[in-house]
Amino acid sequence: MKDKTRFTLDMTPDLRMRLKIAAARRGITMRQYSLSAIERQLEKENIKVLAAGTFNRGTVEKVRALQKSIFGRRRLSDESTELIRQAREERIKQS
């Protein structure tokens, strides 16, 4: 498992069963199905990893624009868990 990290995902029994069925229908493991689904979604959202050394003025401006679109003028806390909690609460309000 060189160059890989483990990611644990908690899910409801119903979601796990749906995942198991979907993977079985394709003859692949739940892990393979999950990774494929995540890859497809990231591609759809055009989320890519930048190679080291590719940051330039344009890249920094894009990141700042993305940050502004997500957080607006809100000052970011140093505590990442607090940021995640706030973002989750906002998504819930919007749904």
Q: Secondary-structure element order, as H and E? A: HHHH
Shape: extended
Distance between the termini: 38 Å
Q: Main beta sheet, described?
A: none
The SS-based structural class is mainly alpha
Question: Rg, please?
Answer: 18 Å
The tally of beta strands, per DSSP, is: 0
Any low-confidence stretches, pLDDT <50, length ≥5? none
Mean pLDDT: 84
> Which range does the strand content fall in?
under 5%
Q: Total number of helical segments?
A: 4
Q: Fraction of residues in helices? A: 55-70%
* Number of separate domains: 2
Summary?
Helix content is 62%, strand content 0%.
Key terms for this structure?
mainly alpha, 2 domains, 95 residues
Structure description:
The protein has 95 residues and is mainly α. The protein folds into two domains: 11-48; 49-95, no CATH class. The chain contains four helices and no strands. It has helices spanning 13-26, 30-44, 57-71, 80-94. Helix 1 crosses helix 2. The chain starts with 12 loop residues before the first helix and ends with a helix. The mean pLDDT is 84.
